[in-house]
Design a protein that fits this description.
Elements lengths: L7 H12 L11 E5 L12 E7 L6 E8 L7 E9 L3 E5 L9 E9 L5 E3 L6 E2 L4 E5 L6 E3 L6 E5 L10 E8 L2 E9 L3 E2 L10 E9 L5 E5 L4 E3 L9 E2 L15 E2 L2 E3 L4 E8 L5 E6 L7 E2 L2 E3 L15 E2 L12 E9 L5 E7 L3
Length: 348
Protein backbone atom coordinates (compact mmCIF):
# COMPACT_ATOMS: atom_id res chain seq x y z
CA UNK A 1 0.00 0.00 0.00
CA UNK A 2 2.95 2.38 0.63
CA UNK A 3 5.61 3.45 -1.86
CA UNK A 4 5.54 4.17 -5.57
CA UNK A 5 5.21 1.58 -8.35
CA UNK A 6 8.41 0.16 -9.76
CA UNK A 7 9.65 0.65 -13.33
CA UNK A 8 8.72 3.38 -15.79
CA UNK A 9 5.54 4.29 -13.91
CA UNK A 10 7.57 5.10 -10.83
CA UNK A 11 9.92 7.32 -12.83
CA UNK A 12 7.08 9.23 -14.43
CA UNK A 13 5.46 9.94 -11.06
CA UNK A 14 8.84 10.89 -9.59
CA UNK A 15 9.41 13.45 -12.37
CA UNK A 16 5.97 14.98 -11.84
CA UNK A 17 6.53 15.22 -8.09
CA UNK A 18 9.95 16.86 -8.58
CA UNK A 19 8.46 19.33 -11.06
CA UNK A 20 5.87 20.14 -8.42
CA UNK A 21 8.68 21.00 -6.00
CA UNK A 22 8.14 18.10 -3.56
CA UNK A 23 11.04 16.58 -1.67
CA UNK A 24 12.02 12.98 -2.59
CA UNK A 25 11.59 11.95 1.07
CA UNK A 26 7.85 12.52 0.74
CA UNK A 27 7.54 9.94 -2.03
CA UNK A 28 7.56 6.91 0.27
CA UNK A 29 4.57 7.92 2.43
CA UNK A 30 1.51 7.32 0.25
CA UNK A 31 -1.39 5.85 2.22
CA UNK A 32 -5.13 6.11 2.72
CA UNK A 33 -6.90 5.12 5.90
CA UNK A 34 -10.60 4.57 6.50
CA UNK A 35 -12.35 4.21 9.84
CA UNK A 36 -15.99 3.23 10.32
CA UNK A 37 -18.29 1.95 13.06
CA UNK A 38 -16.88 -1.08 14.87
CA UNK A 39 -20.01 -2.19 16.74
CA UNK A 40 -21.76 -5.38 15.73
CA UNK A 41 -24.22 -5.02 14.19
CA UNK A 42 -23.60 -1.60 12.67
CA UNK A 43 -25.55 1.24 14.32
CA UNK A 44 -27.03 2.25 10.96
CA UNK A 45 -27.73 0.79 7.53
CA UNK A 46 -26.11 3.94 6.10
CA UNK A 47 -22.85 4.27 8.07
CA UNK A 48 -20.46 7.21 7.89
CA UNK A 49 -16.77 6.51 7.09
CA UNK A 50 -13.82 8.68 8.12
CA UNK A 51 -11.19 8.85 5.37
CA UNK A 52 -7.63 10.22 5.65
CA UNK A 53 -5.10 10.38 2.82
CA UNK A 54 -1.36 10.81 3.35
CA UNK A 55 1.38 11.70 0.86
CA UNK A 56 -0.75 11.73 -2.29
CA UNK A 57 0.64 15.04 -3.45
CA UNK A 58 -0.86 18.43 -4.21
CA UNK A 59 -4.11 19.05 -5.98
CA UNK A 60 -7.38 17.15 -5.87
CA UNK A 61 -7.54 13.51 -4.85
CA UNK A 62 -9.84 10.95 -6.42
CA UNK A 63 -11.47 8.65 -3.87
CA UNK A 64 -13.28 5.41 -4.69
CA UNK A 65 -15.35 3.94 -1.87
CA UNK A 66 -16.14 0.25 -2.23
CA UNK A 67 -18.40 -1.88 -0.03
CA UNK A 68 -18.81 -5.56 -0.80
CA UNK A 69 -20.44 -8.66 0.65
CA UNK A 70 -17.27 -10.75 0.20
CA UNK A 71 -13.74 -10.01 1.39
CA UNK A 72 -12.22 -10.12 -2.12
CA UNK A 73 -14.63 -7.39 -3.30
CA UNK A 74 -15.94 -9.51 -6.16
CA UNK A 75 -19.56 -8.71 -5.12
CA UNK A 76 -19.83 -4.96 -4.73
CA UNK A 77 -22.92 -3.30 -3.29
CA UNK A 78 -21.37 0.18 -3.45
CA UNK A 79 -18.69 1.48 -5.84
CA UNK A 80 -18.67 5.27 -5.76
CA UNK A 81 -15.94 7.63 -7.01
CA UNK A 82 -15.62 11.34 -6.29
CA UNK A 83 -12.92 14.00 -6.22
CA UNK A 84 -12.03 16.23 -3.28
CA UNK A 85 -9.24 18.58 -2.27
CA UNK A 86 -9.42 17.52 1.37
CA UNK A 87 -7.13 14.83 2.74
CA UNK A 88 -9.38 14.18 5.73
CA UNK A 89 -13.10 13.88 5.15
CA UNK A 90 -16.29 12.11 6.14
CA UNK A 91 -17.98 9.94 3.56
CA UNK A 92 -21.67 9.40 4.30
CA UNK A 93 -23.14 6.27 2.75
CA UNK A 94 -26.61 7.18 1.49
CA UNK A 95 -27.62 3.92 -0.19
CA UNK A 96 -28.88 1.48 2.47
CA UNK A 97 -26.69 -1.59 2.84
CA UNK A 98 -28.39 -4.99 2.42
CA UNK A 99 -30.43 -6.04 5.44
CA UNK A 100 -28.54 -8.41 7.78
CA UNK A 101 -25.68 -8.85 5.27
CA UNK A 102 -21.99 -9.16 6.17
CA UNK A 103 -20.08 -6.36 4.46
CA UNK A 104 -16.50 -5.12 4.00
CA UNK A 105 -15.31 -1.66 2.98
CA UNK A 106 -12.18 -0.04 1.59
CA UNK A 107 -11.11 3.20 -0.09
CA UNK A 108 -8.88 3.57 -3.14
CA UNK A 109 -7.24 6.97 -3.52
CA UNK A 110 -5.31 8.52 -6.43
CA UNK A 111 -3.49 11.85 -6.32
CA UNK A 112 -3.39 14.39 -9.13
CA UNK A 113 0.22 13.42 -9.94
CA UNK A 114 -0.60 9.69 -10.12
CA UNK A 115 0.34 8.49 -6.64
CA UNK A 116 -2.19 5.97 -5.35
CA UNK A 117 -2.98 3.91 -2.29
CA UNK A 118 -5.60 1.43 -1.05
CA UNK A 119 -6.81 1.22 2.53
CA UNK A 120 -6.65 -1.95 4.58
CA UNK A 121 -9.75 -4.16 4.41
CA UNK A 122 -12.18 -3.16 7.16
CA UNK A 123 -12.97 -6.70 8.27
CA UNK A 124 -16.44 -8.19 8.46
CA UNK A 125 -19.27 -5.92 9.60
CA UNK A 126 -22.88 -7.04 10.04
CA UNK A 127 -25.72 -4.82 8.79
CA UNK A 128 -28.69 -4.60 11.17
CA UNK A 129 -32.12 -5.76 9.96
CA UNK A 130 -33.99 -2.99 8.22
CA UNK A 131 -37.22 -3.93 9.98
CA UNK A 132 -38.08 -6.04 13.03
CA UNK A 133 -41.58 -6.90 14.24
CA UNK A 134 -41.72 -6.71 18.04
CA UNK A 135 -45.27 -7.50 19.19
CA UNK A 136 -47.25 -9.60 18.67
CA UNK A 137 -44.51 -11.80 17.25
CA UNK A 138 -44.02 -14.90 19.37
CA UNK A 139 -43.30 -18.11 17.41
CA UNK A 140 -45.67 -19.87 19.83
CA UNK A 141 -48.44 -17.35 19.12
CA UNK A 142 -50.01 -14.56 21.15
CA UNK A 143 -53.44 -14.15 22.73
CA UNK A 144 -55.22 -10.88 23.56
CA UNK A 145 -58.40 -10.23 25.51
CA UNK A 146 -58.89 -6.86 23.79
CA UNK A 147 -60.24 -6.35 20.29
CA UNK A 148 -57.68 -3.68 19.35
CA UNK A 149 -54.21 -4.95 20.23
CA UNK A 150 -51.17 -2.70 19.89
CA UNK A 151 -48.81 -3.56 17.02
CA UNK A 152 -45.16 -2.64 17.63
CA UNK A 153 -42.15 -2.78 15.32
CA UNK A 154 -38.79 -1.03 14.91
CA UNK A 155 -36.61 -0.03 11.99
CA UNK A 156 -32.90 0.57 11.58
CA UNK A 157 -31.37 4.02 11.77
CA UNK A 158 -30.81 5.67 8.41
CA UNK A 159 -29.25 8.96 7.31
CA UNK A 160 -31.82 11.69 6.47
CA UNK A 161 -30.25 11.87 3.00
CA UNK A 162 -31.84 8.48 2.25
CA UNK A 163 -35.28 9.71 3.28
CA UNK A 164 -37.44 8.76 6.26
CA UNK A 165 -39.26 5.51 6.90
CA UNK A 166 -42.93 5.05 6.01
CA UNK A 167 -44.85 1.95 6.94
CA UNK A 168 -47.76 -0.01 5.51
CA UNK A 169 -49.38 -2.48 7.93
CA UNK A 170 -51.59 -5.39 6.96
CA UNK A 171 -53.49 -7.86 9.15
CA UNK A 172 -54.64 -11.15 7.62
CA UNK A 173 -57.33 -13.49 8.91
CA UNK A 174 -57.49 -16.96 7.35
CA UNK A 175 -55.15 -15.65 4.65
CA UNK A 176 -57.49 -12.80 3.70
CA UNK A 177 -56.86 -9.09 4.36
CA UNK A 178 -58.82 -7.94 7.40
CA UNK A 179 -57.10 -4.63 8.12
CA UNK A 180 -54.78 -2.38 6.13
CA UNK A 181 -53.29 1.03 6.81
CA UNK A 182 -50.65 2.91 4.79
CA UNK A 183 -48.10 5.70 5.14
CA UNK A 184 -47.64 5.36 8.89
CA UNK A 185 -44.81 7.36 10.46
CA UNK A 186 -44.82 5.86 13.95
CA UNK A 187 -43.60 2.36 14.81
CA UNK A 188 -46.75 1.50 16.78
CA UNK A 189 -50.34 1.20 15.66
CA UNK A 190 -53.61 0.37 17.40
CA UNK A 191 -56.57 -0.42 15.12
CA UNK A 192 -59.44 2.05 14.98
CA UNK A 193 -61.94 -0.82 14.67
CA UNK A 194 -62.40 -4.09 16.54
CA UNK A 195 -60.91 -7.34 15.31
CA UNK A 196 -63.04 -10.46 15.51
CA UNK A 197 -62.80 -12.69 18.59
CA UNK A 198 -61.76 -16.34 18.38
CA UNK A 199 -60.03 -15.75 15.04
CA UNK A 200 -56.40 -16.41 14.20
CA UNK A 201 -54.51 -13.51 12.61
CA UNK A 202 -51.10 -12.82 11.13
CA UNK A 203 -49.66 -9.42 10.29
CA UNK A 204 -46.90 -7.84 8.25
CA UNK A 205 -45.30 -4.44 7.76
CA UNK A 206 -43.71 -2.95 4.67
CA UNK A 207 -41.07 -0.28 5.42
CA UNK A 208 -40.16 2.11 2.60
CA UNK A 209 -37.65 4.92 2.17
CA UNK A 210 -37.98 8.01 0.01
CA UNK A 211 -35.44 6.68 -2.47
CA UNK A 212 -37.66 3.70 -3.30
CA UNK A 213 -35.89 1.10 -1.16
CA UNK A 214 -38.29 -1.09 0.82
CA UNK A 215 -38.61 -4.31 2.78
CA UNK A 216 -41.58 -6.35 3.99
CA UNK A 217 -41.49 -8.50 7.14
CA UNK A 218 -44.23 -10.89 8.27
CA UNK A 219 -44.92 -12.11 11.82
CA UNK A 220 -43.35 -15.44 12.73
CA UNK A 221 -46.46 -16.61 14.55
CA UNK A 222 -50.16 -15.89 14.72
CA UNK A 223 -52.24 -14.12 17.34
CA UNK A 224 -55.81 -14.61 18.43
CA UNK A 225 -58.42 -12.37 20.08
CA UNK A 226 -60.17 -14.14 22.93
CA UNK A 227 -63.37 -13.15 24.69
CA UNK A 228 -62.59 -12.79 28.41
CA UNK A 229 -65.08 -14.63 30.59
CA UNK A 230 -67.76 -12.45 32.10
CA UNK A 231 -67.28 -11.67 35.79
CA UNK A 232 -69.27 -13.81 38.22
CA UNK A 233 -69.31 -11.27 41.04
CA UNK A 234 -70.08 -7.57 41.40
CA UNK A 235 -67.47 -5.43 43.11
CA UNK A 236 -65.72 -2.07 43.24
CA UNK A 237 -61.92 -1.87 42.93
CA UNK A 238 -59.78 0.64 44.79
CA UNK A 239 -59.84 3.97 43.01
CA UNK A 240 -56.62 5.31 41.46
CA UNK A 241 -54.58 7.41 41.68
CA UNK A 242 -55.02 7.62 45.42
CA UNK A 243 -54.18 10.13 46.86
CA UNK A 244 -55.09 12.50 44.04
CA UNK A 245 -54.50 14.78 42.23
CA UNK A 246 -51.19 13.29 41.10
CA UNK A 247 -48.55 14.36 38.62
CA UNK A 248 -50.29 12.21 36.02
CA UNK A 249 -53.98 12.88 36.74
CA UNK A 250 -56.28 15.55 38.17
CA UNK A 251 -59.05 13.02 38.75
CA UNK A 252 -59.38 9.65 40.47
CA UNK A 253 -60.74 6.72 38.50
CA UNK A 254 -63.25 4.03 39.55
CA UNK A 255 -63.22 0.52 38.09
CA UNK A 256 -65.98 -1.96 38.88
CA UNK A 257 -67.36 -5.24 37.56
CA UNK A 258 -70.95 -6.41 37.33
CA UNK A 259 -71.75 -10.10 37.53
CA UNK A 260 -75.57 -10.03 37.28
CA UNK A 261 -77.07 -8.84 33.98
CA UNK A 262 -79.20 -5.72 34.38
CA UNK A 263 -77.89 -4.92 37.86
CA UNK A 264 -78.88 -1.51 39.24
CA UNK A 265 -75.67 0.20 40.38
CA UNK A 266 -75.11 3.25 42.57
CA UNK A 267 -71.70 4.82 43.20
CA UNK A 268 -71.40 7.90 45.41
CA UNK A 269 -68.69 9.93 47.11
CA UNK A 270 -69.41 10.71 50.79
CA UNK A 271 -67.64 12.70 53.45
CA UNK A 272 -66.66 10.98 56.71
CA UNK A 273 -69.98 12.00 58.29
CA UNK A 274 -71.87 10.11 55.57
CA UNK A 275 -73.09 13.21 53.76
CA UNK A 276 -73.38 12.98 49.98
CA UNK A 277 -70.63 14.84 48.15
CA UNK A 278 -71.08 13.66 44.53
CA UNK A 279 -73.04 11.09 42.55
CA UNK A 280 -70.83 9.13 40.17
CA UNK A 281 -73.42 6.51 39.13
CA UNK A 282 -75.96 7.36 37.91
CA UNK A 283 -74.13 10.24 36.28
CA UNK A 284 -75.18 12.91 33.82
CA UNK A 285 -76.36 10.23 31.38
CA UNK A 286 -78.78 8.83 33.96
CA UNK A 287 -77.65 5.23 33.40
CA UNK A 288 -77.94 3.04 36.49
CA UNK A 289 -78.51 -0.46 35.03
CA UNK A 290 -75.51 -2.33 33.66
CA UNK A 291 -75.03 -5.57 31.79
CA UNK A 292 -72.58 -8.10 33.16
CA UNK A 293 -69.08 -6.87 32.34
CA UNK A 294 -66.19 -4.64 33.26
CA UNK A 295 -66.52 -0.87 33.62
CA UNK A 296 -64.31 2.15 34.21
CA UNK A 297 -61.45 1.20 31.88
CA UNK A 298 -60.40 3.59 29.16
CA UNK A 299 -61.32 2.79 25.57
CA UNK A 300 -58.81 0.72 23.60
CA UNK A 301 -56.36 3.01 21.87
CA UNK A 302 -56.95 5.95 24.19
CA UNK A 303 -54.19 7.55 26.21
CA UNK A 304 -56.08 7.03 29.49
CA UNK A 305 -56.84 4.02 31.69
CA UNK A 306 -60.08 5.69 32.82
CA UNK A 307 -63.55 5.97 31.40
CA UNK A 308 -64.45 9.61 32.02
CA UNK A 309 -67.97 8.62 33.06
CA UNK A 310 -66.58 7.04 36.24
CA UNK A 311 -64.16 9.59 37.71
CA UNK A 312 -64.24 12.13 40.52
CA UNK A 313 -62.54 15.50 40.13
CA UNK A 314 -62.76 16.66 43.75
CA UNK A 315 -65.91 18.75 43.33
CA UNK A 316 -69.28 18.50 45.03
CA UNK A 317 -72.76 18.39 43.55
CA UNK A 318 -72.69 22.20 43.35
CA UNK A 319 -69.56 22.13 41.20
CA UNK A 320 -67.32 23.68 43.86
CA UNK A 321 -64.04 22.09 44.89
CA UNK A 322 -64.31 20.37 48.27
CA UNK A 323 -61.83 20.69 51.12
CA UNK A 324 -58.74 18.45 51.15
CA UNK A 325 -59.17 15.33 53.25
CA UNK A 326 -60.41 11.75 53.39
CA UNK A 327 -63.63 10.75 51.62
CA UNK A 328 -65.46 7.49 50.98
CA UNK A 329 -66.62 5.83 47.78
CA UNK A 330 -69.85 3.90 48.42
CA UNK A 331 -70.78 1.22 45.88
CA UNK A 332 -74.11 -0.67 45.87
CA UNK A 333 -75.67 -3.10 43.40
CA UNK A 334 -79.33 -4.18 43.40
CA UNK A 335 -79.86 -2.88 46.93
CA UNK A 336 -77.24 -5.20 48.42
CA UNK A 337 -74.81 -4.35 51.19
CA UNK A 338 -72.64 -1.36 50.26
CA UNK A 339 -68.89 -1.57 49.62
CA UNK A 340 -66.68 1.31 50.74
CA UNK A 341 -63.29 2.50 49.45
CA UNK A 342 -61.17 5.21 51.08
CA UNK A 343 -60.33 8.25 48.94
CA UNK A 344 -57.64 10.80 49.83
CA UNK A 345 -58.15 14.19 48.15
CA UNK A 346 -55.13 16.48 48.30
CA UNK A 347 -57.03 19.57 47.28
CA UNK A 348 -56.23 22.07 44.55
Amino acid sequence: MTGLPRGKGRGAILRRWLLAGLAPSALEAQAVFVDGPTTQPLPSITPALQVRAVGLGPGPIQYTVQIATVADYSALVLDSTFTATDTALTVQVTRPLPSEATVYWRVLARGALGAQATSVNSGARVVPPWLTLVSPNSPAGNAFDIRRPLFVWRSARVTPAAGSWRYDLEVLGAGRPELGVTSLRDTTYRPATDLQANTSYRWNVRASLGNGESVRVASVGSFVITDPPLPTTTLLYQNFPNPFPSAASFVTCFWFVVGAPGARVALDVLDLRGNLVKNIVPGSDGVSRFDAGRYGRGAAGSASNCDNRFVWDGTGTDGRTVAPGVYLARFRADGGAPTFRRIVFRGR
